Amino acid sequence: MQTKPFRIGTRGSPLALAQAAETRSRLMEAHGLPEEMFEVVVLSTKGDRITDRALSEIGGKGLFTEELEQQLLSGELDFAVHSSKDMPTWLPDGLEISAYLPREDFRDAVVGRTAPSLTALPDRAIVGSASLRRQALIRRMRPDIEVIVFRGSVETRLRKLNEGQVDATLLALAGLKRLGREDVITELLDPTEFPPAPAQGAICIESRVGDRRVLDLLEAINHKPTYDAVSCERAFLEVLDGSCRTPIAGYTIVDGDHLKFSGLILTPDGTQEHAVSIDGLCADAVKLGRQAGETVRTAAGPGFFASWS
Ligand SMILES: NCc1[nH]cc(CCC(=O)O)c1CC(=O)O
């Protein structure tokens, strides 16, 4: 192995920095390399700079990855660490997801101020979230609740909640765990009732296709069950992403060499939905995810996607 340090790209939010640090320690451990062999390079992305509008309004996916991807392609960075959930469905030519770290718990968590759980919140409570999926799932459960756009880092959202701007907010358990802020959680949502976003809870590493030095390095920390699960979920998303303003949820349970995927699409008001579940071999993860996507797309019909966008 060469002695030139690897340049790791990341966003600058506390969560992103925690993810980059975890990746670096796993690499140091797996290869017996010193910290100096990894240089963490922090970049600001469009998604970090625009914090007052819903992500779906400002262009959705790619907002958190574009700047990092440019520097990967130009060779400034060797690889980039991301929340898989924030990755665009289609990556630029020449880049790929080459590794996943072991997935954290993929459930959503409620941080309640005026009540601990979604069902216990007062009539017409206000919940802060910028996610179309969370908005639709909340309305499906509690049509009286008003969901307002709520963005910024996890710490910013918790501050807004404590200031009384909302009755509750929803956050990914994975992010709260990585920040050591599980203490604020008042309810953990059951994925069968409140399914997470595809790829939630998984950290991925993006690198150049065919860059042997980097691929050899990353192979040692890739977690195969996470790789298969998230590949299945991303394949589901890919089939449905022609309608990128659709609330989409889905998660995979891996058991040995088998997996079971459950997917759901909803209208933003949560009144209509199409669910799918499929199981098979991990080796067929992508095929199964696509098949699930096609199943719900066919069941929903074109009218489903056209009815609000
Ligand atoms: N879009 C923000 C984002 N991207 C990934 C996570 C959580 C961590 C993860 O899913 O790995 C979050 C915050 C949240 O949804 O609470």
Automatic annotation (TrEMBL):
<comment type="similarity">
    <text>Belongs to the HMBS family.</text>
</comment>
<dbReference type="Pfam" id="PF01379">
    <property type="entry name" value="Porphobil_deam"/>
</dbReference>
<dbReference type="InterPro" id="IPR000860">
    <property type="entry name" value="HemC"/>
</dbReference>
<comment type="subunit">
    <text>Monomer.</text>
</comment>
<dbReference type="InterPro" id="IPR036803">
    <property type="entry name" value="Porphobilinogen_deaminase_C_sf"/>
</dbReference>
<dbReference type="GO" id="GO:0004418">
    <property type="term" value="F:hydroxymethylbilane synthase activity"/>
</dbReference>
<dbReference type="InterPro" id="IPR022419">
    <property type="entry name" value="Porphobilin_deaminase_cofac_BS"/>
</dbReference>
<feature type="domain" description="Porphobilinogen deaminase C-terminal">
    <location>
        <begin position="229"/>
        <end position="295"/>
    </location>
</feature>
<protein>
    <recommendedName>
        <fullName>Porphobilinogen deaminase</fullName>
        <ecNumber>2.5.1.61</ecNumber>
    </recommendedName>
</protein>
<feature type="domain" description="Porphobilinogen deaminase N-terminal">
    <location>
        <begin position="6"/>
        <end position="214"/>
    </location>
</feature>
<keyword id="KW-0627">Porphyrin biosynthesis</keyword>
<keyword id="KW-0808">Transferase</keyword>
<feature type="modified residue" description="S-(dipyrrolylmethanemethyl)cysteine">
    <location>
        <position position="244"/>
    </location>
</feature>
<comment type="pathway">
    <text>Porphyrin-containing compound metabolism; protoporphyrin-IX biosynthesis; coproporphyrinogen-III from 5-aminolevulinate: step 2/4.</text>
</comment>
<dbReference type="InterPro" id="IPR022418">
    <property type="entry name" value="Porphobilinogen_deaminase_C"/>
</dbReference>
<comment type="function">
    <text>Tetrapolymerization of the monopyrrole PBG into the hydroxymethylbilane pre-uroporphyrinogen in several discrete steps.</text>
</comment>
<dbReference type="Pfam" id="PF03900">
    <property type="entry name" value="Porphobil_deamC"/>
</dbReference>
<dbReference type="InterPro" id="IPR022417">
    <property type="entry name" value="Porphobilin_deaminase_N"/>
</dbReference>
